[in-house]
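User: I'm new to structure prediction. If I give you an amino acid sequence, what do you actually give back? Let's try with this one:
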Amino acid sequence: MYYRLFRYFFSLVCILFVIGCSKDSQIESFHIKAEVDTTKATIGDIVSLRIIAEESDGLHLSFPDMEDSEFFEIRQKQYLKKGKGVVFNIVFWDTGRLEIPPYPIEIMKADNTVDYIMETDPFFITVYSTIKNSDGKDLKPIKEPVPVTTPISYRKIILSIVFLLLFGYMVYLWTRRIQIEKRKEIIQNVIPPPYEEALDSLELIKKVCDVKKFYVELSYILRKYVESSIYIKTLEMTTEEIDSYSSLIQMETYLLKEWIELLKRSDLIKYAKQIPEENKRENDLEWSRQFVTLTNNYWRKLQVGVS
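Assistant: Good question. You get back a string of structure tokens that encode the predicted 3D arrangement of the chain. For your 307 residues, that looks like this:
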């Protein structure tokens, strides 16, 4: 039994040893190739630093960002294909022999923690002023201006269109409201109130000589007056229907009763050809004037009480 445990333990140690050796061999075969496109530049020129990881199959690499310094600025960072390298575009802002510091490449473990770091050698770039000679007489040729295009802000365009549409809709609603108010004023000026129209119509039927036509007009004028005042369709109702629904008509009881009696008498004259007494026509006309005046005052008081 002890022999078997010893065999298992020995096998495990061998496996770990092989894995460690293979990993170390991978790291030993891995190396970094770093290069710059030039060692001489002038202020404002772009210098490219290319870093390539060779023999890195099976290794998980990380290329961290390079920080700016007081002498240069990192303009752009580009990854090479398959993630085997990176290129930094660097612009120098000072003159002299300036250093690009060593760049670290991180070899990561399976849990994304750093296992090993390898650094490149530093690079030294000689940066000259834009003036060729120290006496300052000869200058470098002026570079042509770079055309600058104004970026199109679609968001601003869309917001401007929405604002214009909302503003136009508000103007439309405002003008429409003004037109409606003017139309109401015109209607109020053209169409007189129901009681005034009824009194004017009563004055006109005084000249009607035919008794039947007189009572036809009188019944129509009073029905129209009530309908226009309290919005009950008395023009479409018969006298019996008005009597049946009299509880819905807001009017003093005695006036309502006398009005229904007048409508019934008018129906007898219209349809049964009943002839009224000689002075009855004048009395009915005078009563109708008082009916319009009294009911109009009554309805005005109701409106004031409700408001």
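You can read the tokens as a compact description of the fold. Here is one thing that stands out. Residues 194-306 form one domain.
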